[in-house]
Specification:
With 110 residues, this protein is an alpha+beta fold. The chain is built from two helices and four strands; from the N terminus they run E-H-E-E-E-H. It has a four-stranded mixed sheet with strand order 1-4-3-2, covered by helices on one side. A hairpin with a 2-residue loop joins strand 3 and strand 4.
Amino acid sequence: MIQIQPYLFFNGRCEEAIGFYQQTLGAELQMLMRFKEAPDMPPGAMPPGGEDKVMHATLKIGHSTVMLSDGHCSGTPAFEGFSLSFAVADAAAADRMFTALGAGGSVQMP
């Protein structure tokens, strides 16, 4: 059996994303490693000033695993080119999560 695990990059805002998914989806943080904690970091692999940025993190959301990172913090965050879908037990849970995820954002398709 093959499992697909999305890996999302947040260009310097990964901790914010982790908190958001914890609050809105009840995500459980399973692992977090900062750039400064990485063993044998090759020269130039750490973004300038990125010692405390998230190199790798893993969230458990329901029965799914999502991996996250700040990436190399190379500029303005651009959250384009991906979509995630999820299934819940009932319509009330779907409404609650949809509302929480859309708060302060721009809903593309209700």
